[in-house]
Amino acid sequence: MWLDGLYMSGPFYAEYTKLFDGPVSDYDDVAKQIRLVAAHTYDPATGLFYHAWDESKEQPWANKDTGTSSISGAGRRLVCHGAGGCAGLFPDEPPGTAGNHRHVPELCGGVVKYQDPKTGLWYQVLDQGNRKGNYLEATVSSMFVYAMAKGVNHGYLPRKNYEPVIEKGYRGIVENLVKTTATENVVDAMLPVAGLGGTPSNGTRDGSFDYYVSEPIVSNDLKGVGPFILAGIEVQQLLNRPAAGCDKACCMSPQKNKIVAVKITNPSRFYTQQRNRGNQFADRRWRSTVGSATGKFAVKDCATSNILDSQVYASEPARHGQTAFPG
After folding, report:
1. Are 286 and 313 within 8 A, CB to CB?
2. Is 28 among the domain residues?
3. Catalytic residue from among 4, 54, 127, 301
4. Do 258 and 145 reside in the same domain of the chain?
5. Which of 55, 63, 134, 190 has the greatest number of CB atoms lying within 10 Å of its CB?
6. Residue 245 lies in a domain
7. Domain of residue 296, residue span
8. Helical spans, DSSP H, in 42-130
């Protein structure tokens, strides 16, 4: 098994299950994958994860005693992004999700101590920042900021401990790695790919430090730009900033909103499902707010700040099966 599997399949699997009303056992399976990978790849000595584990211990990169790859600081971005990407997708209490949420603090706690104190970024090989050839990398930094910000936004991580780390990390990406040219914005210092085994053109992918720092460094790789965008979305919510194109604090301001339970019935421009799916307001185009004209709670369009009068609901205590929208 390798950590890439969590990053590639976990969030997709959970999102697919949510959108198409999959069985609770599918959520349990997602959480099970995270638990299994953590059980075989976590290194308590460093607080990091090995990139991969071979049960047979036969792969060229595998330690003959443990079956793990040789460096624990090279793969954590993937498991952190995978587990963080699943945050907020599980229903309230499926049997295995406690395993997923339990690993979020464990994953992110190890990340914090390896943040570069000067720039707020993270190195390609996390725990060997002073070693020649290592470099501060955009994809790993974006994935960590995203996972931690989402963890705080969904209540899995304490805000007071993580908000300074998140802010410093995101600011570090923007100030050190994002460049503006005459025609485009460029995110630099990205590793497009790093794997194990196989027959790549640059020789064996043996899991060594030299291998991980030998892959080409590029700009605007989509596997790095995507996490950077996701990080920005979560940081915007974390810091209660208005959405892009909105010049007001509007519904992103905690002072203007209250927690309200509402039953959503297909608001305009929201795609139709066979049943009400209030929890899909997670895309943050809509928020509950107090309408100044009516004094009632309403669904509000953040981009335009318009109250949708046809979608007004009275405030009521949150109950099981309803969705509470925090301000």
Report:
1. no
2. yes
3. 4
4. no
5. 190
6. no
7. 250-325
8. 76-86, 97-112
Q: Catalytic site residue 210?
A: no
Q: Is the residue at 244 inside a domain? A: no
Which pLDDT score, from 0 to 100, does residue 263 have?
A: 41
For residue 134, count other CB atoms closer than 10 A to its CB.
Answer: 18
Sign of the CA dihedral running 163, 168, 171, 177: negative
Domain boundary among the residues 210, 238, 266 is at 238
Domain closes at, from 238, 263, 295: 238
In this structure, is residue 190 part of a structural domain?
Answer: yes
Residues 44-71 have pLDDT tens digits of 888 888 889 999 999 988 999 999 998 7
Count CB neighbours of 155 within 10 A: 12
CA dihedral 156, 32, 13, 223 (to 10 degrees): 70
Confidence (pTM): 0.70
Closest by Cα among 191, 195, 198, 200 to 2? 195
Q: What are phi and psi of 235, to 5 degrees?
A: -65, -40
Which H or E run contains 287?
Answer: strand 286-290
260 forms beta bridges with: 325
pLDDT attached to residue 250:
39
Contacts of 114 (CB under 8 A, 6+ apart): 48, 73, 122, 123, 126, 127, 129
User: CA-to-CA distance for 59 and 77, rounded, in angstroms?
Assistant: 22
Closest to 97 in 3D by CA, of 1, 227, 10: 10
User: At what angle are helices 97-112 and 138-153 packed, to 10 degrees?
Assistant: 130
Hey, what's the torsion of the CAs at 90, 107, 45, 3, to 10 degrees? 70
Secondary-structure breakdown of the chain: helix, strand, coil percentages, each rounded to the nearest 5:
40, 15, 50
Structure tokens at 167: 């802010």
